[in-house]
Design goal:
6-stranded mixed beta sheet; alpha/beta; single chain; Protein-Tyrosine Phosphatase, Chain A; 17 strands
Length: 461
């Protein structure tokens, strides 16, 4: 009876929020329903025939989940997933309320949930996971998470006692790889990583994990792909990058428009041309490939899915506004900002930039991270920059310390006004690259929705 009442209330709130256009119903229904029945999530997911896949880590959760969703869909699974990106337990509960009957029977046979790192203890307890993916761990929202060791310990505690699951870890991230050392014998630990000679990071931005987790000595990096992701070993103890079970190699990055890579497991090789570019998206596709192989999905299905997936909203999303091409690329921490800039630098064309920096709770109120992003490539190939958002002046100051031509920078706090200015400065055959923080992205998308350019984020799922 408690579950029935929670679901009834949740479904009513879902209908009400969407009917009144007060939101997508991706959090409130779950928040209230969980107060009525705190075990709602566990009761529903226990009925999923194939259990759940959880995706966590600092960057790439939404895109990785989108890749996996498409692979599962093309394989014939009926997937229940929080594709809106609402990744706290209230968001998961809201998804289950929408995708279940009033009696708590899920309208699917497998769950796929991106999970905020801080929510992992509850997620692993209630979501019946069969596969858990940890993509990476970088500094992010220090006011909320604290330092990385705290985040890593949260995840470590959440997975150490799991049974009969497969834990997929990024071998190239020392913090993530170390998680595989403290799990029980009933957990299968597999690793994924790059084997690539053509890419070696030059930037030291977000070199967050450089000490051995076991003895404290500084790690030796034989190669870095970006940040602290690479091939490493400890000079003092035996800790070293694990040999990956799933590998990406033969990587080609072509601006923001496409990338290619070979994905392999044992002697099995799959070549794919991706619509999503950047080294970080290669990792996202690789972890999705690894999950698919664990589920014994055939290569042809995996390839077709990887090649058809376009950007999740705001994650290198391409749209057309007033006849002009616009790319929206979410930035939320120094490594993400740096990787966006490095990806853009592989395209030699002169660029137009719109950067919107907010410091609301969902963005992280500490914006000091902008000083740790490597923005040096900006000075090489830009026509103009419009700086916007609540903390536009801070962003402009950061840009000035990159030795840019300040005459090419406009500072306009109002995001709508600033975007219109940036669009007017963009030529008909040029591209505007938009880099907003989280809440700035939603402000911009609401404006674009009113123009008929995009749909509500929850309608696109």
């Amino acid at each position: 009876m408690r579950l029935f009442i929670a679901l009834w209330v949740g479904k009513f709130l879902l209908f009400l929020t969407r009917k009144t256009k007060k939101g997508g119903g991706t959090a409130l229904p779950g928040l209230i329903a969980l107060k009525i029945d705190p075990r709602l999530v566990k009761k529903i997911t226990a009925k999923l025939q194939t259990g759940s896949i959880l995706v966590t880590g600092t960057n790439g959760k939404t895109t990785t989940s989108k890749y996996i969703f498409e692979i599962l869909r093309q394989s014939g699974f009926k997937v229940i997933s929080n594709r809106s990106g609402s990744n706290l337990m209230r968001g998961v509960a809201s998804t289950l309320i929408e995708k279940s009957t009033i009696f708590g029977r899920p309208r699917g046979n497998i769950g796929l949930f991106e999970i905020d790192e801080a929510a992992m203890p509850d997620a692993t307890k209630f979501l019946n996971p069969k596969i858990v993916i940890v993509n990476n761990l970088f500094r992010d929202q220090l006011d909320r998470y604290g330092e990385l060791d705290k985040t890593a310990s949260l995840i470590a505690d959440s997975v150490k006692d799991l049974k009969n699951i497969t834990l997929l870890l990024n071998a190239d991230d020392p913090l993530v790889a170390s998680l595989g050392k403290n799990v029980g014998s009933l957990t299968t630990v597999l690793y994924f990583g790059l084997e690539e000679d053509n890419y070696n990071a030059s930037s030291l931005a977000s070199f967050d994990s450089k000490d051995c987790l076991f003895c404290g000595q500084e790690l030796v990096f034989d190669k870095r792909y970006y940040g602290h992701l690479g091939i490493y070993h400890c000079s003092n103890c035996k800790f070293a990058r694990p040999e990956p079970d799933f590998v990406a190699s033969g990587i080609e990055i072509k601006g923001v428009r496409s990338a290619r890579a070979n994905f392999s497991h044992a002697n099995d090789i799959l070549a794919a041309q991706l619509k999503l570019s950047g080294m970080y998206n290669i990792y996202n596709a690789l972890s999705a490939y690894a999950a698919a192989k664990v589920l014994d999905i055939d290569n042809n299905t995996i390839r077709q899915a990887l090649e058809v997936v376009a950007a999740a909203f705001g994650r290198m999303e391409r749209i057309e506004v007033d006849g002009k091409e616009v790319y929206i690329m979410l930035i939320k921490n120094p490594i993400g900002f740096t990787q966006v800039m490095e990806t853009l630098s592989t395209d030699p064309a002169v660029k137009n930039y719109f950067i919107a920096l907010n410091d609301n709770f969902a963005d992280g109120t500490d914006i000091s991270w902008i000083w740790d992003a490597d923005l040096e490539s900006l000075s090489k190939d830009f026509k103009f920059i419009v700086s916007s958002g609540i903390r536009a002046e801070d962003m402009t100051l950061r840009l000035k310390y990159t030795d840019l031509d300040i005459k090419k920078i406009d500072t306009i706090n109002n995001i709508t006004e600033a975007f219109e200015k940036a669009l007017s400065l963009t030529g008909n055959n040029e591209t505007l690259y938009v880099m907003p923080t989280y809440t700035a992205m939603f402000t911009l998308r609401n404006y674009l929705k009113d123009k008929g350019v995009v749909m509500d984020f929850w309608e696109e799922q």
